[in-house]
Amino acid sequence: QVSPALRSPRVPVWLCSLSGRHGVLFGTDCRLLSDWKSERIFHLYFCSGQQQQTRTAHLTVDTHSHHWEEAPREGPGSPGHRRPALEMAIRTRWAGATVSWNGTDPFF
């Protein structure tokens, strides 16, 4: 459980510890946390500093998408149904949001 105060910092920068690894999730638009209209579709970036991450991951977050618009999955325990830990962390702030990795293979 994440404290509401930690989910909404003054600037859109979050230090993450996911699966025992650390990284920085950040946005470049400071209005993201002060103007609710900015929370419809926005971009976040993630950098872990891990050797296997060769470039910063560019994520597009859509807070108004609907779960029934997603492609059907096999079953609740199938690999296609599981979400990366980074997406789950984003959803602690924006419940139900969909996250596009924009061509980057999901990690974390």
UniProtKB/TrEMBL annotation:
Keyword ATP-binding in record: no
Pfam family, any one: MINDY-3_4_CD
Keywords of this entry: Hydrolase, Protease, Thiol protease, Ubl conjugation pathway
EC supergroup of this enzyme: hydrolase
Molecular function terms from GO: cysteine-type deubiquitinase activity; K48-linked deubiquitinase activity
Record has Iron as a keyword: no
Domain Deubiquitinating enzyme MINDY-3/4 conserved: from-to ranges: 2-103
EC number(s) on file: 3.4.19.12
Superkingdom of the organism of origin: Eukaryota
InterPro entries cross-referenced by the UniProt entry: MINDY-3/4_CD, MINY3/4
Reaction it catalyzes: Thiol-dependent hydrolysis of ester, thioester, amide, peptide and isopeptide bonds formed by the C-terminal Gly of ubiquitin (a 76-residue protein attached to proteins as an intracellular targeting signal)
GO BP term (any one): protein K48-linked deubiquitination
Function: Hydrolase that can remove 'Lys-48'-linked conjugated ubiquitin from proteins.
PANTHER family recorded: INACTIVE UBIQUITIN CARBOXYL-TERMINAL HYDROLASE MINDY-4B, UBIQUITIN CARBOXYL-TERMINAL HYDROLASE MINDY-4-RELATED
Family, as annotated: Belongs to the MINDY deubiquitinase family. FAM188 subfamily.
Protein name as it appears in the record: Ubiquitin carboxyl-terminal hydrolase MINDY
Source organism of the structure: Rhabdornis inornatus
